[in-house]
Amino acid sequence: METRNLTVKQVSYCLFLSIFVIFSFQAHFSEAETHYREFVIQAKPVKRLCRTHNTITVNGLFPGPTLEVRDGDTLVIKAVNNARYNVTLHWHGIRQLRNPWADGPDRVTQCPIRPGRSYTYRFTIENQEGTLWWHAHSRWLRATVYGALIIHPKLGSPYPFPMPRTEIPILLGEWWDRNPMDVLRIADFTGAAPNISDAYTINGQPGDLYRCSKQETVRFPVGSGETILLRVINSALNQELFFGVANHILTVVAVDAAYTKPFTTSVIMIAPGQTTDVLLTADQTPGHYYMAARAYNSANAPFDNTTTTAILEYKTAPRNAKKGKQSTPIFPRLPGFNDTNSAIAFTSRLRSPSKVKVPLQIDENLFFTVGLGLINCTNPNSPRCQGPNGTRFAASINNMSFVLPKRNSLMQAYYQGQPGIFTTDFPPVPPVKFDYTGNVSRGLWQPVKSTKLYKLKFGAKVQIVLQDTSIVTVEDHPMHLHGYHFAVIGSGFGNFNPQTDPARFNLIDPPYRNTIGTPPGGWVAIRFEADNPGIWFMHCHLDSHLNWGLGMAFLVENGVGKLQSVQPPPLDLPRC
């Protein structure tokens, strides 16, 4: 009898243990969620600066909806195009491992979603957390089609900094008092630079300093002593920006969804495509404080010299006793528009929290000149040649001005084995060596239009030095690499010196980014491992420059086996 009771107890214990293990296993995997969303791209009336425009939006919202997910989650987003333009959506900074079909750049990884059609983007977040964003990647539609993409840590994983009381996405944008697509169309016709924006915005609103805008200025209430996390995103089309909050210190804790060694600053410089996470503690006298953004303009070119504002308001701030109104907010001290020293001082302080893995043995050592150019016209007096001295503006990498294909997307043509869409002979160095930041001969100002890709073997260790040029003007070009993040190992002014400059590379704790600016009249060096097969776009995130050809693409070959190869395309992938 005792033996029988012992056996029953053992069986019961084993059964209990099995059930416990099964439930623990299920709980582990149930942490990851699948998020289903429908994004309807449509025109809606939006009033700014006293005028109402039929603006392209997502779900009638400007900015578009914020996506909040966790590392490990899957997103299934059906994009329905009810607008009159072709459109694609890009999930900026998501690595899209083995899945270029969800990346989104028009004619690069997909053909566009035509009016009246739809396409479902399916992708999984893998080992990423922080602030990213999504935006249209067709022509200039991203002027208004954009939103935040916030990736929280997995359940049970804390932030590597004190937990904030509140988290606030801050989307910095640009607003044109006309249809941005018309602005681009006119520039395409004339060959001149497009008209500058009429306002900057914070979360879609210009703020107190613009006409007909004061009533809609965005306000962020905060309690005294509270620490908040500002997730700052530069979603402007063409402008780097300085950003600050009056009388408050910002503690930088992450950039481009990669944590950093914390450091304090009163101002950040943020380029289009970049994100910066900062902690702010409400430790000032209760009141109203402007947060503001205005241009950092590194080029000798016209720019929007206005300032956008929102208000950080303490919940216990006193009001004007006579009228019941709030006191006038205090304004932050921002650098001058051409203060490159402040911009570089900020970016040079960025470091990873600890030692990181940086490729040391380099397989592909690439040197890319990036900058503007001019196309000469046979008839300089033509209405189509309204650039400097009767020319048309252009831009290039290594003198190759990138032309998007028309008959198919690059990735679809590659996967289908379709010839004649692109070549793989993009030059690893400039065709002609010259004094890149000096007085460049006019014979080198005209680039060659082409659709050339650079081929990389799976697993190749890659170094790219991005060298600004003085052709037309020196400028900070924010270069974005799709499908990857990379270590920013060094930068400097003047021409890169391969004999002496590498000695100053930071190979210990460089910051990781997906978008990095070239110092105006200088260079920046990055490294990464080509561990994501597919075709991946690299381009300037100033959209006027992208339109002129400042881009190229990498073709990363498949490795060995399924886990190192591009997955098959979805059945609903749009066709050209």
Automatic annotation (TrEMBL):
<keyword id="KW-0325">Glycoprotein</keyword>
<keyword id="KW-0439">Lignin degradation</keyword>
<keyword id="KW-0677">Repeat</keyword>
<comment type="function">
    <text>Lignin degradation and detoxification of lignin-derived products.</text>
</comment>
<keyword id="KW-0560">Oxidoreductase</keyword>
<dbReference type="InterPro" id="IPR011707">
    <property type="entry name" value="Cu-oxidase-like_N"/>
</dbReference>
<dbReference type="InterPro" id="IPR034285">
    <property type="entry name" value="CuRO_2_LCC"/>
</dbReference>
<dbReference type="GO" id="GO:0046274">
    <property type="term" value="P:lignin catabolic process"/>
</dbReference>
<dbReference type="InterPro" id="IPR017761">
    <property type="entry name" value="Laccase"/>
</dbReference>
<dbReference type="GO" id="GO:0052716">
    <property type="term" value="F:hydroquinone:oxygen oxidoreductase activity"/>
</dbReference>
<dbReference type="GO" id="GO:0016491">
    <property type="term" value="F:oxidoreductase activity"/>
</dbReference>
<keyword id="KW-0964">Secreted</keyword>
<dbReference type="Pfam" id="PF07731">
    <property type="entry name" value="Cu-oxidase_2"/>
</dbReference>
<keyword id="KW-0479">Metal-binding</keyword>
<dbReference type="InterPro" id="IPR008972">
    <property type="entry name" value="Cupredoxin"/>
</dbReference>
<feature type="domain" description="Plastocyanin-like">
    <location>
        <begin position="425"/>
        <end position="558"/>
    </location>
</feature>
<keyword id="KW-0052">Apoplast</keyword>
<dbReference type="InterPro" id="IPR034288">
    <property type="entry name" value="CuRO_1_LCC"/>
</dbReference>
<dbReference type="Pfam" id="PF07732">
    <property type="entry name" value="Cu-oxidase_3"/>
</dbReference>
<dbReference type="Pfam" id="PF00394">
    <property type="entry name" value="Cu-oxidase"/>
</dbReference>
<keyword id="KW-0186">Copper</keyword>
<dbReference type="InterPro" id="IPR033138">
    <property type="entry name" value="Cu_oxidase_CS"/>
</dbReference>
<dbReference type="GO" id="GO:0048046">
    <property type="term" value="C:apoplast"/>
</dbReference>
<dbReference type="GO" id="GO:0005507">
    <property type="term" value="F:copper ion binding"/>
</dbReference>
<keyword id="KW-0732">Signal</keyword>
<protein>
    <recommendedName>
        <fullName>Laccase</fullName>
        <ecNumber>1.10.3.2</ecNumber>
    </recommendedName>
</protein>
<feature type="domain" description="Plastocyanin-like">
    <location>
        <begin position="41"/>
        <end position="154"/>
    </location>
</feature>
<dbReference type="InterPro" id="IPR001117">
    <property type="entry name" value="Cu-oxidase_2nd"/>
</dbReference>
<dbReference type="InterPro" id="IPR002355">
    <property type="entry name" value="Cu_oxidase_Cu_BS"/>
</dbReference>
<feature type="domain" description="Plastocyanin-like">
    <location>
        <begin position="167"/>
        <end position="316"/>
    </location>
</feature>
<dbReference type="InterPro" id="IPR034289">
    <property type="entry name" value="CuRO_3_LCC"/>
</dbReference>
<comment type="similarity">
    <text>Belongs to the multicopper oxidase family.</text>
</comment>
<feature type="signal peptide">
    <location>
        <begin position="1"/>
        <end position="32"/>
    </location>
</feature>
<dbReference type="InterPro" id="IPR011706">
    <property type="entry name" value="Cu-oxidase_C"/>
</dbReference>
<dbReference type="InterPro" id="IPR045087">
    <property type="entry name" value="Cu-oxidase_fam"/>
</dbReference>
